[in-house]
Amino acid sequence: MEGFYVYAIVSEKDGVIYVGIARDCEDRLREHNLGKAKYTSGHIPWKLFYTEYIGDSKRARIRERYFKSAAGKRRLRAILSKNS
Q1: Element containing residue 17 per DSSP (H, E)
Q2: Cα separation of 51 and 83, whole Å?
């Protein structure tokens, strides 16, 4: 699909959750696991556990900001614990 996704990954090393936006979540996950992003390079390996298709970049950024808020992080932790 064309457009943007909001994604969440979890570090299998220490349980840190990272949220971002991408056009191709699997490709972006590969980049994180190769250490190409400064913050995430210290928490390798990463596992993708949440994706949400948004469409345009402006709405994707708004949704990403929500998931980086306290309420959004609680929601992601609930999703992660449900999937475990």
Answers
A1: strand 17-22
A2: 13
Closest CA to 46 of 35, 57, 32: 32
For each of the domains in the chain, give its residue range(s) and CATH number, in order of start.
Answer: 4-83 (3.40.1440)
* Residue pointed to by tokens 């994604």: 7
Residue 83 confidence (pLDDT) = 81
CB atoms within 10 A of CB 51: 15
H/E stretch holding 10 reads strand 4-11
* pLDDT higher than 80, residue 84: no
Q: 48 exposed, middle or buried (CB, 10 Å; 0-12, 13-18, 19+)?
A: middle
Tens of pLDDT, residues 5-50:
999 999 999 999 999 999 999 999 999 999 999 999 999 999 999 9
